[in-house]
TrEMBL record:
<dbReference type="Pfam" id="PF02771">
    <property type="entry name" value="Acyl-CoA_dh_N"/>
</dbReference>
<dbReference type="InterPro" id="IPR046373">
    <property type="entry name" value="Acyl-CoA_Oxase/DH_mid-dom_sf"/>
</dbReference>
<keyword id="KW-0274">FAD</keyword>
<comment type="subunit">
    <text>Homotetramer.</text>
</comment>
<dbReference type="GO" id="GO:0050660">
    <property type="term" value="F:flavin adenine dinucleotide binding"/>
</dbReference>
<dbReference type="InterPro" id="IPR006089">
    <property type="entry name" value="Acyl-CoA_DH_CS"/>
</dbReference>
<keyword id="KW-0809">Transit peptide</keyword>
<comment type="similarity">
    <text>Belongs to the acyl-CoA dehydrogenase family.</text>
</comment>
<dbReference type="InterPro" id="IPR036250">
    <property type="entry name" value="AcylCo_DH-like_C"/>
</dbReference>
<dbReference type="InterPro" id="IPR050741">
    <property type="entry name" value="Acyl-CoA_dehydrogenase"/>
</dbReference>
<keyword id="KW-0560">Oxidoreductase</keyword>
<dbReference type="Pfam" id="PF02770">
    <property type="entry name" value="Acyl-CoA_dh_M"/>
</dbReference>
<dbReference type="InterPro" id="IPR009100">
    <property type="entry name" value="AcylCoA_DH/oxidase_NM_dom_sf"/>
</dbReference>
<dbReference type="Pfam" id="PF00441">
    <property type="entry name" value="Acyl-CoA_dh_1"/>
</dbReference>
<keyword id="KW-0285">Flavoprotein</keyword>
<comment type="function">
    <text>Long-chain specific acyl-CoA dehydrogenase is one of the acyl-CoA dehydrogenases that catalyze the first step of mitochondrial fatty acid beta-oxidation, an aerobic process breaking down fatty acids into acetyl-CoA and allowing the production of energy from fats.</text>
</comment>
<keyword id="KW-0597">Phosphoprotein</keyword>
Length: 438
């Protein structure tokens, strides 16, 4: 496709155009929500497929989704798997992979074509979460960037903010992060202390954030800060701000060393008298908590979606291992104890997959509520940790060795019940809807 002698910029431009042409087949994918049954008729569910990661399964998807999935799968296998071990040593992925993801239409999948996206639906963007888990490579923070950070800007930003950030974020040349968590405030967002005080038409931002995914590499960060400390409750005095890398007083601290997600940069962020023009305010002043509550169900669905995809990968990885591992004079897959464990794992994964797909269907129709998303997040991530433990056990001592991929899946799974709102908080949110009189 690229003529010999073409320079690098021309080659990149031609590659991008080819990918865009391919992805235009998905420009009307948002219509799938009204015709899923027709498109999905006759498709096997994961319980019936040869493997849980087969393309062409699950009724919520269509043949157009399958074409997109093939493109996404190829990208992760070719561009993410080979360098991932190096990224784990570096504590971050490369800038290059972000730009390649943009060129391949993997960032901001549901952004409209006007701003560089392909206009896909929720199901299309879910494919990108799943395929990343299907290669067991947690490094690239694409899901947070595309499906957590970008929606805040798209939904609440001004025309100028959208035009400034969204096209570059779709292209992978501007990496996004969101800064909620603080050293003394995690799941309790009303406990934050970072504040932004009015100074004329500007705001002066002070405070610190911790455990910020994409924080080290970020070009723009959505910062959650108190703007009205006198509000009747802190929830009524929180605002969101777009803080750009390089602003005076904005300092990125160390990359935090974690037991898992080793290739995904996680940083401390510090704000000391950062002067923000009024154009940095995202949405209305003091409406930040409301915006967070509107967007958090999608974040929790993403965590559940990635969690169940990881479960599917762990099952297939373990099934392949026990089929070739010999002990006691036979392949261990012939041992009844092992067979029963695999039967239990597959059954549980299929139940989890059915629930997540139900949530995806509901969300695609814009009906996912906080309690249902919380159910998915807590139950699937608990399941993910249980399955990680059992699959590692079936690997024996080799499962404890970093050279075996199940070890990475085991440590990566541990954070899932913690971030995005701890599972204890998820149960609180679910319980409120159960006992409420409304």
């Amino acid at each position: 496709l690229v003529p010999s002698g073409a320079d690098e910029n021309m080659a990149t431009s031609m590659l991008t155009n080819c990918v865009r042409l391919f992805n235009k087949q998905l420009r009307n994918v948002s219509r799938f929500s009204t015709s899923i049954k027709r498109h999905g008729e006759g498709r096997p569910e994961v319980s019936q497929a040869a493997t849980m990661m087969d393309i062409g399964t699950r009724e919520i998807f269509s043949s157009e989704h399958d074409m997109f999935r093939q493109n996404v799968r190829r990208f992760f296998q070719e561009e993410v798997v080979p360098p991932h071990s190096k990224w784990e040593k570096d504590g971050q992925v490369s800038r290059e992979v972000w730009e390649k993801a943009g060129q391949n239409g993997l960032l901001g999948v549901n952004v409209n074509e006007e701003h560089g996206g392909i206009g896909g639906d929720v199901l299309s963007t879910a494919i990108t979460w799943e395929e990343q888990m299907y290669v067991n490579c947690s490094g690239p923070g694409f899901a947070l960037h595309s499906d957590i950070v970008m929606p805040y800007i798209s939904h609440y930003g001004t025309k100028e903010q959208i035009e400034k950030f969204i096209p570059r974020m779709v292209a992978g040349t501007c990496i996004g992060a969101i800064a909620m968590t603080e050293p003394g405030a995690g799941s309790d967002l009303q406990g934050i202390r970072t504040n932004a005080k009015k100074d004329g038409s500007d705001y002066i931002l002070n405070g610190s954030k911790v455990f910020i995914t994409n924080g080290w590499m970020s070009d723009v960060v959505i910062v959650v800060a108190i703007t009205n400390p006198e509000a009747k409750s802190k929830a009524h005095g929180i605002s969101l701000f777009l803080v750009e890398d390089g602003m005076k007083g904005f300092v990125k601290g160390r990359k935090l060393e974690k037991i898992g997600f080793k290739a995904q940069d996680t940083a401390e962020l510090f704000f000391e008298d950062v002067r923000l023009p009024k154009e940095s305010l995202l949405g209305e002043e003091n409406k930040g908590f409301y915006y967070l509550m509107q967007e958090l169900p999608q974040e929790r669905l993403i965590i559940a979606g990635m969690g169940i995809a990881s479960c599917e990968w762990m099952f297939e990885e373990t099934r392949n291992y026990v089929r070739q591992r010999k002990a006691f004079g036979k392949t261990i897959s012939n041992l009844q104890t092992v067979q029963h464990k695999l039967a239990e794992i597959k059954t549980e994964v299929c139940v989890g997959r059915a629930f997540v797909d139900q949530c995806l269907r509901i969300h695609n129709e814009r009906g996912l509520d906080s309690a249902t998303a919380s159910m998915a997040k807590y139950w699937i991530t608990d399941l993910q940790n249980s399955i990680a433990t059992r699959c590692l056990q079936l690997h024996g001592g080799w499962g404890y060795m970093w050279e075996y991929p199940i070890a990475r899946a085991f440590v990566d799974s541990r954070v899932q019940p913690i971030y995005g709102g701890s599972n204890e908080i998820m149960k609180e949110l679910i319980a409120r809807t159960i006992v409420s009189d409304k």
